[in-house]
Amino acid sequence: MATDGYLLELRHISQVYGSGEQKFTAIRDVDLALKDGEFAALIGPTGCGKSTLLRIITGLQTPTSGQVLYRGKPLVGVNPHATIVFQTFALFPWLTVLENVEVALKARSVPPKLRVSRALDLLDRVGLDGFETAYPRELSGGMLQKVGFARAMAVEPELLCLDEPFSSLDVLSAESLKGELLELWTTGHIPTRAILMATHNIEEAVFLADRIIVMDKDPGRVIMNLKVDLAHPRNRKDHHFLEVVDRVYMVLAGQTLPEHLELGTAPGEPGRTRALPHINIDDLTGLLEYLDTIPNHRADIYALASELQINSDELLRLIEAAELLGFVNVAHGDITLNPLGETFSEASIRSRKEIFATRIRRLPIFKWLLNLLRSSGRKQLEWDVVQTALGLEFHEEEAQRQLDTAIDWGRYAEILAYDDSSEILYLEPGGN
Ligand code: ADP
Ligand code: MG
Question: For all residues of the chain together, what is the average pLDDT?
Fold first, then answer.
């Protein structure tokens, strides 16, 4: 082992793609070290160079400049101690599950008998016991990805690289596979010494990793390292967990003001309660998607109103909402989509809802409303009761509109439900 304890070290790695006019710097001057025993997550918007970095690390690609050291020695060619698991797997359709895992061992010249026993063992560990003789077409997406994991782990890599391995799976399969990976990793049942996982999913990173490496793009670079000092198994509802999640969001959003100044205080508390801007969520996502398509993700606010053909009052409300949620930065008459906004506009509907939920939970009005609901016996409240309480802070008509908007946002985020006929507000199960 290298004396400094690093399994992997990247020094001043840059990657330029294309040539001449088309030249484009995908990654600039990235330094990164991974210790023996460490599980790190790479997080950042699409195009920030996560996949490129993983290919460079495993030696599938040689960077334009910089050095890759593995156990202190310069890496030459493909790293035989590392394996990558991709988002989707190319399994051989004509081979059984068992044979698909064996193939990887054959390629590494493992003798036939050992091949079978090792492949069986791995399939058992990822929960595919009983499916050895099935063909890929008979398996669900989640099971296929498990075969992928088994195949990657069969070769007993010291360094396991995961490139958004859960993003193409349904929620349940992703959850169970994450659980199995953690189990293998934390119990030391695999010889793997370090894991590096690229992901879009902030909560997934905080759930699994010991360290989060936050990247930004144009050019791709590391903007922060954040240690996750939480013991496994981690509880997503635990406030330390949520604190770390919030910090990652803050970095991605480039937030600089303290929360109480940025967000105001809760109704009934001293200080100003910042009102929710009354906007339609589709219009908001439309604005963010638009910003995602333009150069530098930046637009002049004045020009934007005519560009998008909406009136300026409405545009200002949309911008205020986007800023309140931390998706954009506004300065000198310009609006810029930040990395969190990019992540949101490029995410699936499901992930968008999760991001949105995390963002609105920090708003004092929502904190207050959720507390109110939680402390009411049946986790439900009548509309009138909430409106009256909001009347402490807003005049009657505004209190109504605040509540309407809060319900609209809470429904989209799937943390609140509202029954129009009985006029009763509920906490969604899991929305507490
Ligand atoms: P991520 O995985 O974070 O989405 P990638 O590493 O895939 O990022 O890509 C980083 C940037 O480099 C993107 O702008 C992408 O279009 C570009 N890129 C990636 N691979 C190539 C390639 N082989 N040739 C040219 N450009 C590439
Ligand atoms: Mg990628």
Answer: 89
387, 398 contact by CB (below 8 A): no
Q: Rounded to the nearest whole angstrom, what is the distance from the C-alpha of residue 380 to the centroid of ligand 2?
A: 42
Long-range contacts of residues 232-240, Cβ cutoff 8 Å, at least 24 apart: 232/182, 232/186, 233/182, 234/206, 234/207, 236/203, 236/207, 237/432
Is the minimum distance from the CB of 26 to ligand 1 under 6 angstroms?
yes
* Entry pTM: 0.72
| Residue 304 pLDDT grade (very low, low, confident, very high; cuts 50, 70, 90) | confident
The CATH T-level fold of domain 6-252 is: Rossmann fold (3.40.50)
Q: Phi then psi for 185, rounded to 5 degrees?
A: -70, -50
In sequence order, the 6+-apart residues with CB closer than 8 A to the CB of 223 are: 214, 215, 216, 251
- Predicted confidence (pLDDT) per residue in 374-393, tens digit: 988 788 899 999 999 898 88
- Please tell me the residue having the least CA distance from ligand 1 atom 24: 17
Q: 């088994």: which residue's tokens? A: 150
Confidence grade of residue 305 (pLDDT, cut at 50, 70, 90): confident
Q: Max Cα separation, the chain?
A: 78
Whole-number Å distance, alpha carbon 73 to ligand 1 midpoint, is 27
Domain 277-351 has CATH 1.10.10.10: yes
- Centre of ligand 2 from the C-alpha of residue 374, in Å: 40
Tokens, residue 62: 């040689």
Domain ranges across the chain: 6-252, 277-351
DSSP assignment letter at 356: H
DSSP count for the chain of H helices, then E strands: 16, 16
CB 10 within 8 A of CB 66: yes
